[in-house]
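Contributing new complexes? Match this layout with acetyl coenzyme *A.
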Amino acid sequence: MSEPRRSAHVTGWGRYAPTQVLSNADLERLVDTSDEWIVTRTGIRERRVAAAHETTASMAAVAGRRAIAVAGIDPNEIDLILVATLTPDYWMPSTAALVKEAIGNTRAAAMDVAAACSGFVYAFATAQAYVTSGLARHVLVIGAELLTRFLDYSDRGTCILFGDGAGAVVVSGSDEPGGALGIELTTEPQGAYMIWLPAGGAKSPPSAETIARGEHYIRMEGKETYRFATRTLASTALASIERAGLQPADIDLFIPHQANIRIIEAVAKGLGLPMDRMYVNLDRYGNTSAASVPIALAEAVNEGRVKVGDRIVIVAFGAGFTSGAVAIEWTADPARGIAGDAAVAPEDITVRLPVDWDSVDPIPEALAELMRRPGRVDVPLDDVVPDEPAPIAEEVRA
Ligand code: ACO
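Output block (do not edit by hand):
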């Protein structure tokens, strides 16, 4: 008789969003656009912008520590740390290595995963392989992005879409049934230059010339990307559902990559399901690339949209072109999420800097100038979300 295969369960989840809000009205003052155009064509109303002292690693570490708190384990019980990102702090070391130190883990292996907006789903699938094979007991899977430092604030086709943030889960091995049931990952390299960041790599190392040409910013063929997404997302989700032995109607909630409301509507249509099966929070965060699915997952669970025994599907697409989906039977107590979020404050996390390092201001000048202007709309839509602790009143503080 063969040994029963271990299953991979989500036991912890967490998210972190920077506090600064950039609204569509703010962007109207920077490029030739309008709130009406952005909302109609994308569904996005506002996005978050990391402060100068924040980095991808620092946001990843806050989300990661929150997920570990929800899982109720010690950071040192994590065997592997995976950080999915297209905006790492450095080319090397990996952002995962920095996160390992910041969360107080001394024994995990750590590496980054590069699959653009599909990165979190790819990393989740990698975690599933590690825990079901017995190579790891607990894997910390993080999606984290600081995209606002890689945008051309004169290109209205891209600068309105993206925002910053991080989300994380702990994937744990167990002999109990449930957890990740079916996985599908795809890569279509004919789309390689549809979303790309031309300079900075070995093909085109950074130079005064590449900077002058603006090749250090994200470039995108919006229409081609849109076509790929609407063609692929539903079929990728369907493949993961079929691998799990299920039908689309069996899925209680989809957590799709939060790129564009019209893309999510096309997925619902493609699967023959109503929009209330699709979780949407892109109005508040924009597209946070690899962070979008884990932020949405953590919010959906904390808002009570996911119950024990529910079947959910995480599904994403991104540069590459890549896409991925995992069908999951949820087994963790959703009530654990809110306490976990409150347990870790951003100030508790420090990412060590090199000695004698004199960093330049990381925020692009056009964005920094806009954020300094008086009259900015800076009231987040989710200033009262269920998992956010109530602000401490001044008199109580004093
Ligand atoms: N404000 C006002 N007008 C605009 C803006 C803007 N921000 N951006 C473009 N326009 C104009 C265009 O110039 C065009 O004008 P024209 O007709 O005079 O030429 C018109 O609006 C229509 O432009 P389209 O590009 O056809 O608009 P579309 O409906 O395709 O929407 C969008 C553009 C939102 C980018 C859409 O194509 C999209 O969402 N694509 C997918 C993008 C995506 O998801 N990328 C993330 C990939 S994930 C990753 O790995 C990073």
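Reviewers usually confirm one structural detail per submission. For this one: The longest strand covers residues 164-174.
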